[in-house]
């Protein structure tokens, strides 16, 4: 069984993430979406909220998808799943530089797990969770970047924190 891991913070899950998920499921028999507990990034949503948000978003995809939180080293998490590949999305050159360093380090930690990069659809290349949150905080329209359900959750959370 080919198991792929798509890790991220997903704070919130965007249309760009969903595009990568939709294409990644074609490459593997099981896709695990690893929701990173990354308090250093100052997430808007708790880990549990992000896991539930991603689960709700992938319900309609006809594939074996597991959404699971993790707070360990990425390669340890991938090994615990029996993953053969890590899926990463690329939007721009800046993403490539960061991902290049991470891939080199991950390769040193476990050369048996490949990293596969999927280029973001041009419609989603500018979409970043960080920007979605910033736009929402400034009362801008985020509906073209996230699903209606996620947009509603982001607006409610921003309102709660203001």
Describe what this molecule looks like in 3D.
The protein is an alpha/beta fold and 162 residues long. The chain has helices at 15-24, 47-58, 74-81, 93-109, 129-137, 148-161; strands at 3-8, 30-36, 64-70, 85-90, 114-119. It has a five-stranded parallel β-sheet, sandwiched between helices.
Keywords:
single chain, 162 residues, alpha/beta, five-stranded parallel β-sheet, 6 helices, 43% helix, 20% strand
The percent of residues in helical segments reads: 40-55%
Spell the H/E element sequence: EHEHEHEHEHH
Q: Runs with pLDDT <50, length 5+?
A: none
Structural class based on helices, strands and sheet pairing: alpha/beta
Largest sheet: 5 strands, parallel
Mean pLDDT equals 94
Strand content: 15-25%
Number of strands: 5
Compute the number of helices: 6
How big is the Rg?
Answer: 15 Å
End-to-end Cα distance, whole Å, is 46 Å
Give the overall shape.
globular
Quaternary structure annotation = single chain
Strand ordering within the main sheet: 3-2-1-4-5
């Amino acid at each position: 069984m080919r198991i792929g891991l798509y890790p991220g913070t997903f704070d919130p899950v965007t249309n760009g993430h969903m595009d990568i998920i939709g294409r990644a499921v074609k490459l593997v028999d099981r896709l695990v979406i690893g929701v990173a507990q990354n308090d250093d990034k100052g997430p808007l949503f708790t880990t549990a909220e992000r896991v539930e948000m991603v689960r709700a978003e992938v319900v309609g995809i006809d594939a074996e998808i597991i959404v699971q939180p993790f707070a360990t080293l990425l390669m340890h998490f991938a090994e615990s799943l029996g993953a053969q590949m890590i899926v990463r999305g690329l939007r721009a050159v800046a993403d490539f530089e960061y991902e290049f360093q991470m891939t080199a380090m991950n390769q040193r930690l476990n050369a048996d797990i490949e990293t596969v990069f999927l280029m973001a659809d041009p419609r989603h290349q500018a979409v970043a969770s960080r920007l979605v949150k910033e736009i929402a905080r400034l009362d801008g329209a985020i509906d073209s970047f996230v699903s209606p359900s996620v947009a509603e959750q982001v607006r409610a959370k921003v309102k709660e924190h203001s």
